[in-house]
Amino acid sequence: MTRNIHDDSNIFLSHKNPQVLLQTVNSELSNIIIWIHANKLSLNFQKTNYMLFSNWKIHVNKICKLLSRNTGVICKLKRVIPKEILFILYSTLILPYLNYGILAWGNSSKSQNEKLCFIQKRVIRIICNVHFRTHTNALFHQHEILKVEDIYFMQLGSLMYDLNAGEFPLALAQRFKKNSDIHRYNTRQASDLHLPRARTQFTLKTLVHTGPRFWNSLDASIKHTSSKSAFKRRLKSHLLNTYCVDS
Questions:
Q1: DSSP 8-class letter at 11
Q2: Angstrom distances, CA of residue 16 to CA of 19, 92, 111, 243
Q3: Rounded to two decimals, what is the model's pTM?
């Protein structure tokens, strides 16, 4: 199961078994109601809806179609507007579709991410007016554009920063623990987030595993920053610096 809460109050839950998913949804809704009441908030039921994704592959394929269409728009405009404006169009016509809900689907399938990254590479080649076989890592780095996989890690890191800063709702924060909460041994990993035991590959892709695993992998100079904006700048720089070898 994966859960993600955004500023626009979206919640994503997933499970292969529909009955388990239904039970989980009802349980999570109960926790949400408790949190809402505890914070003296109210829920507008008339504006509350749900959407069922039967397969993230279908969702990603729809994104690919939209991005391919919008790539065509950028391609037609590249001869009449400057590169700087084309990058603004990228931020308008491409990036929002990659950002939206990526914590829910961004870790679901490597092959699906590769399809999206292929489109990203095509777009950046078009904007930079280079050969269609030109290696793109240097272009991504130069223009500070993250690949879809790293957009996922960027959002995942931001979420874990909120957890570490104590800005998570209690109902969510209780699902994460530090190693020091599990045992009292004074080790280098005592302050790391605890990784619960996973019995299936599906469980390894859930937020309670991917979040702590990614957070623990980050250097202390990235994690220990004075503000979230500084953390995001350092994390983005770290991710961009991995594009040091063209592929």
A1: B
A2: 9, 34, 19, 35
A3: 0.78
Give the span between the Cα atoms of 232 and 151, in whole angstroms: 11
- Tell me the H-state helices in the chain: 18-38, 56-77, 83-93, 95-99, 102-105, 110-128, 137-142, 148-164, 170-173, 179-182, 201-204, 207-217, 220-223, 228-240
Rounded to the nearest angstrom, the gap between the alpha carbon of residue 58 and the centroid of all alpha carbons in its chain is 18
- For 50-97, write each residue's pLDDT tens digit: 766 667 889 999 999 999 999 999 999 999 999 999 999 999 999 999
Q: Residue 180, Cβ neighbours under 10 Å: how many?
A: 15
Tokens of 239: 């991710």
* Residue owning tokens 């890191």: 157
Residues 23/28/30/33 CA torsion (nearest 10 deg)? -150
Q: How far apart (Å, rounded) are the C-alpha atoms in residues 227 and 18?
A: 40
Please give the Cα distance from 239 to 89 (Å, whole number). 23
In contact, 67 and 116? CB cutoff 8 Å:
yes
